[in-house]
Prior knowledge:
alpha/beta; 15 helices; globular; binds iron/sulfur cluster
Amino acid sequence: xxxxxxxxxxxxxxxxxxxxxxxxxxxxxxxxxxxxxxxxxxxxxxxxxxxxxxxxxxxxxxxxxxxxxxxxxxxxxxxxxxxxxxxxxxxxxxxxxxxxxxxxxxxxxxxxxxxxxxxxxxxxxxxxxxxxxxxxxxxxxxxxxxxxxxxxxxxxxxxxxxxxxxxxxxxxxxxxxxxxxxxxxxxxxxxxxxxxxxxxxxxxxxxxxxxxxxxxxxxxxxxxxxxxxxxxxxxxxxxxxxxxxxxxxxxxxxxxxxxxxxxxxxxxxxxxxxxxxxxxxxxxxxxxxxxxxxxxxxxxxxxxxxxxxxxxxxxxxxxxxxxxxxxxxxxxxxxxxxxxxxxxxxxxxxxxxxxxxxxxxxxxxxxxxxxxxxxxxxxxxxxxx
Length: 385
Ligand code: SF4
Ligand code: SF4
């Protein structure tokens, strides 16, 4: 481990950890158009995707500096025809391999090829528990049936069944039906994650943020199911993730900037988290720099390490070693300055924007059809300004 400096009156900056988690965003192409997608709004204007050989080099370099797990994500990673090859190479290098997918584009043959390549883990995301809402949100008439079929095929191949439901004000009231569907599919782990407001979700926040009453009801029902499943000795684990808009302290985003997570985007830009591309910070590209240089010496990865960059109230706050001032992307989106305390924090002078968003959620009437869907057309319009 290598460390960066700090003044003697401050708590010592934590040593720079190893990039244990490599998120390989293989492509921004995706057949679906979820209005809560965390991809950048201008994804359609991004540069050329890394080739198979370039990904091989990235995976080898990341492994050399300590990466142990790799997540293949996107966009929809299944769009890449070299996915089995990439999985095979990751496995050969000694990674624990995860595929994070919507299941669209998956076939039994491809699943078999991933299994043969050594894939360890698959997570399938659903949009809703019923076909109509799921397909509307996904922007595809076939999405739901395809997901059900592929969830069964994944289970049949001996993978742990990991399902992810992004919840929001249009589906969270059906949490019981969502859980029932997961149980019917024999899921081992279910992540019920209220959408986090980055990328397209932030653009659609007024139409997506649930009310406090919706959230509390959903959490109560989840806890009741959890207790029932535990009493039955049922193997399914339910994980409920609340949006930080209803918290008074921010999350320790990414476990601290540049401390554990390394994201490489489709065009090779390296980021400390997948949302960081929107920040006014120059981030390096794997086509021009080694990952060792990027992780330890680049301006972008050192920009918010340690505590010296913090203004008040974080600078003199005794909680800064716990939450590192929260999320830099959220601070930038909601205050215009990425150095500010995350406004989720009640100590932030900007906490009012969070309170206003909660208030807005109480009165929002945006119908599901009027959300801005994540697709090439909308992205190009946004990119043009
Ligand atoms: S969130 Fe939806 S639109 Fe975004 S990459 Fe995933 S499946 Fe595609
Ligand atoms: S003031 Fe900053 S360091 Fe203190 S709790 Fe709030 S966000 Fe965390």
